[in-house]
Amino acid sequence: MKPGLPLLIALSLNTGAAWAECASDDQIAGFVADYISNTPTAALSKDGTMADALCTQAKLVHAMTAHMGPVIGYKAGLTSKPAQDRFGVSEPVQGVLYQNMMLPDGAEVPATWGARPVFEADLILVVADAAINQATTPAEVLAHVSAIRPFIELPDLTLAKGEPITGVTLTAIGVAPKLGVLGNPIPVEDADAMTDRLAQMQVTLAAADGEILSQVPGQAVLGHPANSALWLMSKGITFAPGDMISVGSFGPLFPPAKGKGGARATYDGLPGNPSVHVTFN
């Protein structure tokens, strides 16, 4: 497990602290088996606190790396108002990114990539150096980011019908990471200019036939996409060079059927107006 994981998570594993609703080893094993087989499963820590959820997430990450590879970064989930409204939360939730979930631009994936698959327009910040951990503003974050990458995340909400999907249960499962499609890196050569571009860009998510599913400004994510990095740091995460930061959803999450065979996210206002696309089959 990466040393940058929040102190609360590390302590919950390393000291054997007793948490009221930290998932048992059997619950973790059952969840992992269902996750791998795309089987709807039971919620973890559903009667617990956020501290319980973080303890559960730590145990789950430890178990999942055998299947998903090492943790390569972190995600702030539910960072747009539509996403927060859907799941009844008032702030984001924190999770992880795994090495094996990342796919190249134009990847083809089964439309049933999970038990409850959804897709969203997202964005990745790539950490340049550890000085990012002293940042207090979006501009200071961007001064320590080496590149921006378009990103369509393909989460799996995983939980069976009737199981509660809340901030706590989402946190317990690491905010539902499954797959994600990465666009080409855009170097950050002028941090101040990129800070402005990220705030002013328009992010459009379209189905394969061109139907516009959502179109929102960069400011839809916590007022500025780099605020996701600041929020994660406020929760105890310490970034290392090379870490990827998923800033969260620009607009709602959609089931694969809405993509009509795929999806494309376009970032008008970033250099070259880049895009990233995925095909569902």
UniProtKB/TrEMBL annotation:
Which superkingdom, per the lineage? Bacteria
Lyase: present as a keyword of the record? yes
What residues form the membrane-spanning segments? Answer: none
Signal peptide span: 1-20
The Fumarylacetoacetase-like C-terminal domain sits at 81-250
Q: Name one GO cellular component term.
A: cytoplasm
**Pfam families for this protein:** FAA_hydrolase (PF01557)
EC number(s) on file:
4.2.1.80
What molecular function terms (GO) are annotated for this protein?
2-oxopent-4-enoate hydratase activity
- Write down what this protein is called: 2-keto-4-pentenoate hydratase
Q: Which organism is it from?
A: Falsiruegeria litorea R37
> Taxonomic lineage per UniProt?
Bacteria, Pseudomonadati, Pseudomonadota, Alphaproteobacteria, Rhodobacterales
